[in-house]
What does this fold into?
Amino acid sequence: MHVPDGFIDAPVSAAAGAVAAGAVALCLRGARRELAGAPGTTLTGAERTAPLAGLVAAFVFAAQMLNFPVAAGTSGHLLGGALAAILVGPATGVLCVTVVLLTQGVLFADGGLTALGVNILIMGVVTVAVAYALFAALVAVLPRGRRSVGAAAFAAALVSVPASAAAFTLLYAIGGTTDVPIGTVLTAMVGVHVLIGVGEAVITMLTVGAVLAVRPDLVHGARSLARPLKLRVGGRLIDAEPVPRAPARSPHRVWLAGLATALVLAGAVSFYASASPDGLEKVAADHGMDEKAGEHAAADSPLADYGVEGVSATWISGGLAGVIGVGATAAVGSGLFYAAVRRRTGTPATGRIGRTGDPGTGKAHPAGEVSGGSGDSPAGGPAERS
Amino acid sequence: MGAGHAHRLYTHRSSPAHALPPHCKLAAVLCFVLVVVSTPREAVWAFGAYALLLAAVTAVARLPAVPLLRRLLIEAPFVAFALLMPFVVPGERITVLGAGLSVPGLWGAWNILAKATLGTAASVLLAATTEPRDLLLGLQRLGLPQPLTQIASFMVRYGDVVADELRRMSIARRSRGFAARGPRQWGVLAKTAGAVFIRSYERGERVHLAMVSRGYTGELPVIRELRATRAQWARAAALPAAALPVCLLGRLL
It folds into this structure.
């Protein structure tokens, strides 16, 4: 389901490309962390990214060629976004799918060159983000064990495929070149992709199970299953010395980058947004619901209908309203977050975000890093991780 | 790996199109596709002109037409989407062969079919005249960050190795009497996928160590600087330059 050229109009394709490029840039840094070698080695990730992510991308590419027969001569194949996210982590997963899409677009002419950003956004970023968020949440909630990892993988893959179809429909609604009724597109796309998602879910669950049975340390999503490292000293098992972790980086830069992106989107890109009513308003208008709906209480506020009162040029007015809205939302959101962190810790927020879903923190490093395959002694020396 | 490193997508010829530097060709194809995409769909003749331009490039590159046309089939899934449009789009209807079709839907389907086919054909021509390795170098020259092109080059280099591994496993399965008939056999196939993942990942680790022991620090040395003379840029620009007036005429008429 690679989107070809001419399907989504140029401004929306360009915006999708910009968002996808930002996401891939973030993932390049995240992948370095995910693929970092055994702690204590002088090699710290950067030079491991290319060979490992490249080979995993080759695996995703090959796995898409593996045919799964369904019935009566039809067969399907894996899409692999959810599988890659669970096996090697979300950032590396996005990179692998991105590279697969890039090569398919440039070498195999599968998916248009101008639609590359759209393809990366819906099939790489959205699929992996939805799959991994759901997977991590389920693994955190369900009891610890291999069966839970399988169930979480099933659910994550099942949801990720229709989510990607829904993202496509959203882009199509904003920048589609033909006015197909969006409700019809959504029903058809999500309906078909729920079916595809069931197959994807079964295969992903079975594959993750197969890897877990042989090399559980290679499954990024199952690091929480890793037991703390024990050393046998004089016939007794004792806990190994915990490896000091590099302090979490300050999230300020991520926060600033996010704010800048939101401001650019609100201030400049919103100019290209569709002027036609959104889905809910359309349904409301079609069924006469909005006749009853009175004007919003804030209808004569200075920012009503996304324009700034007293500014005549529509695009400046809309952009300004967007920027003010983003600023206000960011201020209120950050304030609430700050307050929540402060209340929970009882001390002023230090700006550090602990890693969630990793009960092994502080006790021992997960097995995936111990037997990273480089043959180095697992607990040798201080960690030097980027 | 013993059978030469040329990819099956690449058709070796000595032609002016093959000789151009990859980044010129990439830029030219991208501009051409942009021009095609921004042509209004009502200018039906313009798309015929674009097709003629691509046919001229095929002739200059001395490529056989039939294999190239066959590779256009890759866009088939979205053609199905396009073919549904005349039936589901609301609007004015006409009757063709007893079936009521919507006029905006027909225009939409035509729009997608024409633009997608031309875009695919341009990409197919690009891949047929440029080696995959050169294409990646060209992408890097055009500003794609090096980590990404490195990952892509590892993928291109080892894609066939991993695919061959999969093929050998398939032969081994079938020679032991396995036949995949339905979902009941998915367990076996998924175990295959899992085994291929482990093998790929371990191969990645071996490749990494082998490279580190040869002095790799995360950057690949640039052995061949990609350069293009002004004449080469001009030759590559011929395609989009010829397409641009067609697009402008299509917008005016």
Notes: Strands of chain A lie at 67-71, 74-77, 230-233, 236-239. The radius of gyration of chain A is 24 Å. Confidence is low (pLDDT under 50) at residues 347-386 of chain A. Chain A touches chain B through 78 residues (CB under 8 Å).
